[in-house]
Specification:
The chain is mainly β. The protein has two helices and seven strands. A three-stranded antiparallel sheet has the order 1-7-6. A two-stranded antiparallel sheet has the order 2-3. A hairpin with a 2-residue loop joins β4 and β5. The chain is elongated, with a radius of gyration of 18 Å.
Length: 111
């Protein structure tokens, strides 16, 4: 009889569309209304220097493929992937995904 070890990995991170933003802020009209969320260099992973919550922050950007395939290639089985949706009163936040939630399970035989 084989014994299996397992673990559950829960990931909550900024969505890659969010981290790929040029300045991680909306492009606004002259009247100050959010026009669109800019995405640039999506397929180029790495550092993103941005201003977040009043601080200069260095973030790491990865594509959705890199994130999910990284888990699959390392023996994880995806159980859930969700792009968290904000409440309807946050109208502009419904225009692009902000958060990515992943649940993965790892099962392996003992060596």
């Amino acid at each position: 009889m084989k014994t299996f070890f397992w673990g559950v990995f829960i990931l909550n991170m900024e969505h890659p569309v969010f981290t790929a933003g040029v300045g991680q802020d909306w492009i606004y009209t002259e009247a100050g209304e959010a026009l669109y969320w800019p995405v640039d260099n999506y397929f180029f992973p790495g550092e993103r220097n941005t201003h977040f919550l009043g601080c200069d922050v260095v973030k790491q950007h990865h594509t959705l493929t890199q994130i999910l395939m990284g888990l699959l290639k390392n023996g994880f089985e995806l159980k859930a992937v969700e792009e968290a949706q904000p409440p309807e009163e946050m109208k502009d936040e419904l225009r692009r995904p902000m958060m990515l939630l992943v649940k993965a399970v790892k099962k392996e035989s003992p060596v």
